[in-house]
Design brief:
single chain, mainly alpha, two-stranded antiparallel ribbon, 19 helices, 2 strands, 63% helix, 1% strand, globular
Amino acid sequence: MRDFRIVLLILGALLCGLGALAGLFFLWSVSINDGEGPGFLLTLTMTGFVGGLFLILGRRASGELNFRQAVCVTVASWLGLPIFAAFPFLFGDHPLSFTDAVFETVSGLTTTGSTVMTDLESTARTLLMWRALIQWIGGVGIIALSLAILPFLKVGGMQLFQLESSDNSTDRLIARPKNLALVIGSIYAGLTLLCAFCYILAGMMPFDALAHALTTVATGGYSTRDASMGAFSPAAHWVGSVFMLAGALPFMAYVRLIRVRRWGRTGGFSEIRWFFTLIAVFSILMIGAQLTAGIGFHEAVREGIFNVVAVITTTGYASGDYQLWGSFAMASFFVLTFLGGCAGSTAGGFKTFRLEIMGKAIGRALSKLPSPHSTVTARYQNRRLTNEDVASVALFAALYVAVFALSAMVLAAMGLDFMSAISAAATALANVGPGLGDIIGPAGNFIAVPDGAKWVLCAVMILGRLEIIVALLLFTPRFYT
């Protein structure tokens, strides 16, 4: 077995970092005497102890992180960090149960946004900011996962992005991975600050603006109000739409834009055109659905665009209950739940690039039917689309459907009604947040879901965030040889 001391070293550093953040929140809580100090103090103590122990055990680690070690770090982080991040919810002034606390942090770190918390207006500000910061940290972790690990898997089609992230690429925009991480981190932080400033201009108070900026750019969807974005002005909805889109675009596109100074020359991102086309089509459909329901034109445009963007980017904000728009709208939003944003973004879902590849593969197959011996080629990212690329996307799609179907069946067996079971499975796997139905719909939350079902949803959220394959690798014997 490989030397995994470097895994302990990195996990120790992550836990110590989480503990340091908890320490800052502890000081904030004590200074305003909001009663949440014990939870943050325990988080500081436990993460400091375990993180320090891991640092000691991994202190003699040598060499660079290889692929197997990177996979272990990734999976362990998404499994372990939510446990430690849950302490403030467990031991605060209004503690949650262990199941609910872990569900809230898993949902936060995976940027899903499903919540069991109610009466957010009276919840301590430190706790609200803690859950928003968890989503923000999870968002940048997703970008790192997309650029550093997934391109080297030959399942799911992410190998198409290896030219952008591999050290062996001749087309690298930034030579050193550390420099690339710094640039992407700076872009991520810059978008967040800009979003917060725009929210303030739209009428939000500074606290609400910062909390929502953290979860908007991360496409997470946690809010400081029970009514989510419905509690804020129409101007805030437009700001949210813009920055949800910003978070769902590939961050390598921003890097290219900075390097070439002109968006039109960035190239290689046909996925973005497909993404905006899907948004335009579904927005028009949802505007029409609202007009049919008797909603005014200007409100229909704003509500249609905002809610379509919120779901397709897997942010999950709600400005109202779109289930009231009719059965066609409900069916459309269920489809939107699966689509997702772009690769290398903070968004979850099936990802637009896979839809594009499947569309081009179907077009190529149909073109060959009249002339089976003809040569028909399809291209993606300025390269020829191979049979291996198409097969990897098809295999991922099969796994995606299988996980969705199995989890929906398990949830139904645990007592959820049909609509709640299938929409909960979909929203967890795609990391969207709200489901459909009276219980977990955009006007509800997951507090009434049985504890066993919440643990199932936690597993599905992590599977969806890790693109399924990364987690399954740990159960493959050859992974350890």
